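pinned: reference chain
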Amino acid sequence: MQENRSNNLGILFTDDAGNGLTQDFFASIINSFKCYVEKKGYNVVFINCTDEGQEMCSMVAQCKKLDLEGIFVACTHIEDPRVKELLDLDIPAVSVDLEMDRDKSVCISSDNVNGVYNLVDYIVSKGHTKIAYIHSESSNIVTQIRKKAFFEAIEKNGIEIPAEYICEGKFRDMDKASYFTDKLLQLPNPPTCIIYSDDFAAIGGLNTAHARGLEVPRDVAIAGYDGIRVAMQYEPRLTTVRQRSDKMGEVCGKMLLEIIQNESNITDKLILIDTDLEKGRTV
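pinned: its structure tokens
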């Protein structure tokens, strides 16, 4: 590292669902990022982004006060005026699932397209053609990518599904997942397999199926997304797509330091990290 530098890096993390760092996916990424950059001699601080307190400093003011050399943006809204103001600074930045139209920045994301393709192909290989999808909020960019990949994978396999098989839930919301699971299972022609936006939602679906006296996967198959630890310990073990959160955090740290230390822009603005299909026992 060069002299006359603070060696301070900021983390901007917001979570509308209120799960904070108990959110397994982002907690793992942030921890991996933190471990990597601290080993390289950098300090990590969180940028306060709440609305509480009348004397709250702006994000830009905090950034300047802490003399941050770079920022890591995770799980936040690019349209937030405070975030826009922060990203207007000429400061190196990395993000997760959030492509930024600016210099000195790079986005790290899971390969959601191939993750969904592999999951649907596996489900079809098990004989399922009546496949439902309870996705998260349509406004979410990750949801948009996965929905598009889902329909492409369904079409590629020569399958047609009715409109009522597609439901809009919410990330990490077991209640909504349970509600839509019950609704799908009550259809005159119910699906034989239901894909969920994430593993927490899938567990909500599993609980609903069990409450109806159904056996998974004999009576209905269920698949999640993320590969969180609790899903791997659930019985029956959940079929899901595991995102490599540890690797994502490390790559975020590596790319941020590369921009800082080389004082150059990154030509590749998007880096995709492979996912793994965990076959489990629920399909």
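why pinned: The mean pLDDT is 89. The first strand starts at residue 8 and ends at 13.
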